[in-house]
């Protein structure tokens, strides 16, 4: 990729916080993807952990405060420092693109759904990050439209990174299971097959898939995928990576779209 080309869009599963402090395939996958890509000027990060109701929040501050919305994990996790700079100029571009549905909001910072990924992709924390929230009141059509409005910023050197999980059901999680339950595997595979084929109608209407209600009991971890889909064209080349499930009911499957 050369500097005058459109930057990619990534949706990634971030999974358990334990992924942050253990060697695992997800971390290796994030490192490999970063090695393959041109370093972006900025990252627009859509976070499943930053939930706002009725609007999309955009962090405009020049610094990103590290957030630890995690509880009960080993001490070493809380000792990690990852605070890339913000990008106020790009944040203003994001606000202009989204219009009245977005608001400046510096109450949140860079949370584990984003920094757990970026600490592996860009360990020097030298790529500016603009944090964007998930509007929990938005429909999938509205979330997709948010992505569509952000699409043009890819031509200004901004990578779009959306972090969540396709399958995310902590009610039935099994910490002793290193893989996925059959229902989680089936849902993940059918959705991934549709994305590979450029059929975005399926992920935009996931409730028609088997086990959808079990895979997506709440929408905040699925929503970043929908935003990402809006920011790409179905004809763009998609690379599937980190294609596995863990703890029975959490999917790590991730997608990279590039021209």
UniProtKB/TrEMBL annotation:
> Would you say which domain of life the source belongs to?
Bacteria
Q: InterPro entries, alphabetically? A: Extradiol_dOase_DODA, Xdiol_dOase_suB
In the UniProt record, does the keyword Metal-binding occur? yes
Task: Name the cofactor(s) required for activity, per the record.
Answer: Zn(2+)
State the UniProt keywords alphabetically: Metal-binding, Oxidoreductase, Zinc
Report a single Gene Ontology molecular function.
zinc ion binding
Q: Which Gene3D superfamilies does the UniProt entry name for this protein?
A: LigB-like
The answer to whether the entry has keyword Cell wall biogenesis/degradation is no
Family note = Belongs to the DODA-type extradiol aromatic ring-opening dioxygenase family.
Name the record gives this protein: Extradiol ring-cleavage dioxygenase class III enzyme subunit B domain-containing protein
Q: Which organism is it from?
A: Eubacterium cellulosolvens (strain ATCC 43171 / JCM 9499 / 6) (Cillobacterium cellulosolvens)
